[in-house]
Amino acid sequence: xxxxEKIAEIEREISRTQKNKATEYHLGxxxxxxxxxxxxxxxxxxxxxxxGEGFDVMKSGDAxxxxxxxxxxxxxxxxSLMTSTESEAASYEFTTLTCIPGVIEYKGANIQLLDLxxxxxxxxxxxxxxxxxxxxxxxxxxxxxxxxxxxGDVQRNLNLRPTTSAKKGGGLSFNxxxxxxxxxxxxxxxxxxxxxxxxxxVLFREDCTPDEFIxxxxxxxxxxxxxxxxNKVDQISIEEVDRLARQPNSVVISCGMKLNLxxxxxxxxxxxxxxxxxxxxxxERPDFSDPIIMRxxxxxxxxxxxxxxxxxxxxxxxxVWGTSTKYSPQRVGLTHVMEHEDVIQIVKK
Length: 349
What we know:
- GO terms for molecular function: GTP binding; GTPase activity.
- By secondary structure, this protein is an alpha/beta fold.
- The chain has ten helices and 14 strands.
- The strands form three sheets. Strands 2-3-1-4-8-9 form a six-stranded mixed β-sheet, with helices on both faces. Strands 11-10-14-12-13 form a five-stranded mixed β-sheet.
- Helix 2 packs parallel to helix 6, helix 2 runs parallel beside helix 7 (210-218) and helix 6 (185-194) runs parallel beside helix 7.
- The radius of gyration is 25 Å and the shape is globular.
- The termini are far apart.
- Mean pLDDT is 80; it is low at 45-54, 89-96 and 123-128.
């Protein structure tokens, strides 16, 4: 029996098992097996075979955004509109067959946008080119999940932490800093044994479900910001547009009529948590033509490292103008946290 058949069999058993107190251990064990088989499925095949077109794209710019969606939702049109890259677009499905990069220039930042082939239901199990698409998406800072607004919530519904440390002996140690209602010590032990872990220290810092606990053990799950973008809103009623726009983490657009693209860029900037900083030399005006792009929470020390790796060691103090200071200019040290559109002048020893 192959891995896909084993996964299907476990999924069937989970669906027909009634969820109650008596079956929670059995369900937990099934979920652990399911996660293990899925992890095996996403591992690259060791068997030699013909190489396909490469999906690896060198990371460039200030941030990376993966553009994912079902076939024919308008991803290629979106890439062509937002960047200078031309991606083949057509009304039929599976137009894009490999990863096509482009660059969005916004607020002085270069944001790399990757147009990935259309995913199909079961992509996580390796169907279509699901493995390659998921592998590239894991390297992004934000995922844009592009959906067809004419299909309502159908596509969106198809896509939908504790700590453990191994030790050499001593069995299982189970502790928690909060009341744990979803995972008992017996269930945790059963799940760990399924992964051949017999000696471990388990500490729950939040009331996690068995699925979240399995994610920690497997260690191959990556949680990242996701923005749901509904395209083709020009083809639905205004009431439906309003309903979709009010969904959490959602933006409605029309690539065909170029509607609401500016708001999408604003939201993407927020999700990427980027800030623009400007430098100033003594006795000169700030240089607004070449901003430094940093992440929110960046300090003066991070700015020094971005300008030159030796600058932090020669740092004496900095003068900062902007919203991060009480008055302008303010003399600050290396630990001062910068904010969007601050101006900085660094004074060396």
